[in-house]
């Protein structure tokens, strides 16, 4: 008996069906390390235009989370695409290392900070930070992220700190740096000032009180026995009250309630009356806010005046229209207090505890004082109403504890001084998504001056000296000297040496006749650290500046995007980036923020250990990262199914071209069959769509385009049809070589365009393919090809596919009716009008092959029998094909038995066997 199975050209490939990614990816990464893949790709592209994505540094503390993974994968996909499409792409990963979390981590480990010098404590901080970097570096590399991992940038590196000092010095030289006593966000839990970027909002329950202030000097404007009513949710700030603010244009009503007269904004009277449960009240006088200017009220529990002032900041959205004003505890309060020459009173210390400036409350934590202040007001008859409510309140984003506004001497960077330049820079930046522009523009437009000083130990010192007369010293000479010292020794030298030993040799200053100097003890806001890396990394390393792209989470519009913009525009007049791209946060499948306390976190390391990094990367490509992204184990399983389909398609394609020599067996486009030309055209369409999607950072479009092409157009159409040709025909058959040509190009295109997303898998395949280049990463995307016939071909084949779909529908109906089993058992008779018939019978068109049936007949639609299935434009009858089943190709044919030598084969198969397999027994 002849074994015809041996005459079939079945797929042959060493590319395994199962990826076994958790085990094989680390081996692939070892291979990349051994060949120094990053160095090779940089050498290959050294003469190309540069593309620089400057890495926003993650904080060096703890294992990476899913947000970290998504961020780094997005960056890597962009860099890999650009390096394969005409650019030289150096990528330097970085880390942010200064700040409170590391100080807290050491405290939690039992380090006694107070028992050592600041310099010694800082050395422990550095050691801890470097340990965390090594932990995170290993996990980032496990993701397959390519970059200069042996030479990353770290904000504690001496050269980075030296550049930061230079940035500070240039800003100071331009007059942008100043010291002021202003209310700033103050974190009692951190004992430090905070910038806006370090604030997050959480719900908090607060008291809501209405308090009356008796008129002391009415200025003949209001009754002498009237009382102003203020509303506040921070009773603890009343010891610092120095005034009451009213709006100059609002009308204020003097309201008689029983025996008492109260003053409130007329527009809020009904609301206040309801809140204070006034049953009978009467307006006895109306007065414009401007007329109340400098009326004097009596502080409710101190022998102190409370000055009535007029200000545009007063609103009638809530409250009484009479605003409690404490210049030491609020930005608006501070501004109007300055206008009226009020002192800046802030009777709270670094820990949030009242000082002697708040008699009766000394030593009390501010939040605990709310109750005591309220009780004091009630005792004195000044408390008109007390309730409690829950509202959004600013918290320290590190300690998660509430913050306060507190006036302290701080160093600031002026934003007003160059706000217009900043806004112009925003206008000149490209944003993805587009709404990011409005967000950053409004933040810059509305933000106050930047508080850059922090009362901490672990950070870059503010390089300011003080003369004997306390005058600050910031000169180009001192800045250059300190910068050089930091470059040589690191910033810890600031805490190891006395001021005189940090100044240039022989330095003198008129404010220090005795030659004595002191130094600033505060450090810089960590956002100044990372915000200066455009100098510490890009300029320091001779990279492209401004960078082409900054890419971070959407919270960085107030953080790194913001601080980097300020420092760069301040010293160079341009943004440090040409484009900004932001991504959302990772949420669980219920839309909740992932947190350890909820137990809903998914560790990237766990996903990689169970499924592989390429699954994580494919997931990152599949989602709309510009919004918040929901994540679940079920979603990863869905993505792994798509990966399996892609991998199997790779395997099928490669298995069917292993006997194809691209140099000698390629069929010219003009000689391809029409179906092959159509698929070649669709491949070019996909290539163009994918490349354009990469260009606009739309990885989900890449994912969906490729997935659809693989699942629908390849697996369910072309590759399914191809089996009857590439398995059955002789090895050098023209139709087979035509299909192999298209398959080869499809394989080469897909393996390259998917390399930015799943590089471990594509490089595994590349090695199996035995290509000349050591890695697919060292190749370029193919250039899309265009042929004149594409337009005509596309129009015709839209109709061909539509007609094929009608036939497939009829086959499915016949299968359901048990008329046929497999489609090769079928004979399809199609009844069509002339237009459709012309397509079905056009030269070179083989609808039996397209539909994988054994016989296909086209007749005039007028001849359609009553039982024909109307599917749309066609009427179709499906019957059993006439003839016998060919043992080799399984088609039903009346030619089976015609060959005496091969009586169980159809004529086509018999001819193939006789011509190519004469030795088969």
Verbal overview:
- This protein is an alpha/beta fold.
- Helices cover about 40% and strands about 20% of the residues.
- The protein has 29 helices and 33 strands.
- The strands form 9 sheets. Strands 6, 7, 8, 9, 10, 11, 12, 13, 14 and 15 form a 10-stranded mixed beta sheet that branches. It has a 4-stranded parallel beta sheet with strand order 1-24-25-17, sandwiched between helices. It has a 4-stranded antiparallel beta sheet with strand order 5-4-16-18.
- Strand 24, helix 17 and strand 25 form a beta-alpha-beta unit.
- The longest helix is centred in the C-terminal third of the chain and has 28 residues, at about 700-725.
- It is elongated and about 125 Å long.
**Biggest sheet, open or closed, and with what strands and sense?**
10 strands, mixed
Q: How far is it from the N-terminal to the C-terminal residue, by CA?
A: 7 Å
Share of residues in helices: 25-40%
Number of strands: 33
Integer average pLDDT: 92
The dominant shape is elongated
Helix-strand makeup class: alpha/beta
Which key terms come to mind for this protein?
29 helices, alpha/beta, four-stranded parallel beta sheet, 921 residues, single chain, elongated
């Amino acid at each position: 008996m002849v074994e015809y199975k041996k005459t079939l050209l079945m797929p042959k490939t060493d590319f395994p069906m199962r990826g076994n990614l958790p085990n094989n990816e680390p081996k692939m990464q070892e291979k990349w390390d051994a060949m120094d893949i990053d160095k090779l790709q940089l050498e290959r592209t050294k003469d190309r235009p540069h593309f620089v994505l400057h890495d926003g540094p993650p904080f060096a503390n703890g294992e990476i989370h899913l947000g970290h993974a998504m961020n780094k994968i997005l960056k890597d996909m962009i860099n890999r695409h650009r390096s394969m499409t005409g650019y030289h792409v150096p990528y330097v990963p970085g880390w942010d290392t200064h700040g409170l979390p590391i100080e807290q981590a050491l405290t939690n480990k039992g380090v006694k900070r107070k028992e050592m010098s600041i310099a010694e404590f800082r050395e422990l901080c550095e050691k801890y930070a470097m340990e965390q970097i090594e932990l995170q570096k290993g996990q980032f590399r496990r993701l397959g992220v390519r970059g200069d991992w042996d030479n990353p940038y770290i904000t504690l590196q001496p050269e980075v700190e030296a550049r930061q000092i230079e940035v500070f010095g240039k800003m100071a030289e331009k007059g942008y740096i100043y010291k002021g006593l202003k209310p700033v966000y103050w974190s009692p839990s951190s004992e430090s000032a905070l910038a806006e970027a370090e604030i997050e909002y959480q719900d908090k329950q607060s008291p809501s009180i209405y308090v009356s202030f008796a008129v002391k000097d009415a200025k003949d404007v209001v009754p002498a026995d009237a009382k102003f009513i203020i509303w506040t949710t921070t009773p603890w700030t009343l010891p610092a009250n120095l005034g009451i603010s009213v709006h100059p244009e609002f009308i204020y009503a003097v309201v008689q309630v029983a025996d008492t007269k109260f003053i409130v904004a007329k527009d809020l009277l009904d609301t206040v009356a309801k809140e204070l449960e006034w049953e009978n009240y009467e307006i006895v006088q109306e007065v414009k806010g401007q007329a109340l200017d400098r009326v004097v009220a009596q502080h409710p529990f101190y022998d102190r005046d409370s000055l009535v002032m007029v200000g545009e900041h007063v609103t009638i959205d809530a409250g009484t229209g009479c605003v409690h004003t404490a210049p030491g505890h609020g930005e608006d309060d501070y501004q109007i207090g300055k206008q009226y020459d009020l002192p800046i009173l802030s009777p709270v210390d670094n820990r949030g505890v009242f000082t002697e400036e708040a008699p009766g409350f000394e030593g009390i934590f501010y939040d605990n004082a709310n109750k005591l202040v309220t009780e004091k007001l009630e005792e004195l008859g000044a408390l008109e109403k007390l309730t409690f409510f829950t509202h959004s309140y600013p918290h320290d984003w590190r300690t998660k504890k509430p913050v306060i506004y507190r006036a302290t001497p701080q160093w600031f960077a002026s934003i007003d001084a160059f706000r217009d330049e900043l806004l112009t820079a925003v206008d000149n930046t490209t944003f993805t998504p587009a709404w990011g522009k409005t967000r950053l523009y409004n933040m810059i437009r509305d933000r106050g001056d930047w508080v850059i000083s922090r009362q901490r130990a672990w950070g870059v010192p503010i390089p300011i000296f003080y003369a004997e007369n306390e005058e600050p010293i910031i000169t180009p000479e001192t800045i250059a000297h300190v910068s050089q010292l930091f470059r040589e020794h690191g910033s810890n030298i600031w805490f190891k040496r006395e001021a005189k030993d940090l100044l240039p040799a022989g330095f003198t200053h008129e404010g220090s006749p005795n030659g004595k100097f002191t130094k600033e003890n505060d450090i810089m806001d960590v956002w100044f650290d990372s915000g200066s890396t455009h100098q510490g990394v890009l300029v320091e390393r001779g990279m492209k500046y401004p960078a082409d792209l900054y890419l971070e989470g959407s919270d960085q519009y107030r953080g790194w995007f913001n601080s980097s913009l300020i420092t760069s525009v301040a010293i160079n007049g341009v943004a440090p980036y040409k484009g900004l791209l932001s991504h959302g946060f990772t949420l669980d499948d219920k839309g909740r923020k992932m947190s350890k306390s909820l137990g809903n976190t998914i560790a990237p390391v766990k996903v990689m250990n169970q499924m592989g990094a390429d699954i994580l990367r494919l997931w990152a490509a599949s989602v709309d990262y510009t919004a918040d992204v929901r994540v679940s184990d079920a979603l990863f399983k869905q993505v792994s199914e798509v990966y399996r389909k892609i991998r199997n398609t790779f395997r099928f394609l490669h298995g069917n071209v292993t006997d194809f020599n691209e140099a000698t067996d390629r069929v010219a486009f003009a000689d391809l069959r029409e179906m092959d030309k159509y698929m070649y055209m669709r491949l070019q369409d996909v290539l163009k769509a994918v490349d354009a999607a990469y260009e606009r950072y739309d990885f989900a479009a890449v994912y969906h385009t490729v997935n659809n092409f693989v699942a629908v157009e390849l697996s369910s159409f072309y590759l399914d049809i191809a089996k009857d040709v590439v398995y059955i025909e002789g090895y050098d058959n023209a139709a087979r070589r035509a299909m192999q040509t298209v398959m080869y190009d499809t394989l080469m295109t897909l393996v390259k365009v998917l390399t930015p997303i799943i590089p471990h898998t594509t490089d595994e395949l590349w090695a199996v393919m035995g290509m000349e280049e050591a890695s697919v990463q060292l190749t370029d995307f193919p250039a899309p090809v265009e042929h004149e016939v594409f337009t005509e071909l596309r129009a015709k084949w839209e109709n061909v596919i539509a007609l094929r779909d009608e036939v497939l529908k009829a086959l499915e109906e016949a299968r359901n009716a048990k008329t046929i089993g497999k489609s090769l058992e079928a004979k399809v008779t199609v009844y069509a009008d002339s237009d459709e018939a012309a397509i079905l019978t056009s030269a070179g068109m083989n609808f039996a092959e397209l539909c994988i049936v054994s016989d296909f007949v086209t007749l005039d639609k007028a001849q359609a029998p009553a039982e024909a299935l109307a599917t749309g434009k066609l009427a179709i009858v499906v019957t059993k094909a006439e003839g016998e089943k060919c043992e080799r190709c399984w088609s039903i044919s009346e030619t089976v038995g015609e060959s005496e030598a091969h009586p169980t084969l159809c004529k086509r198969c018999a001819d193939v066997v006789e011509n190519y397999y004469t030795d088969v027994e």
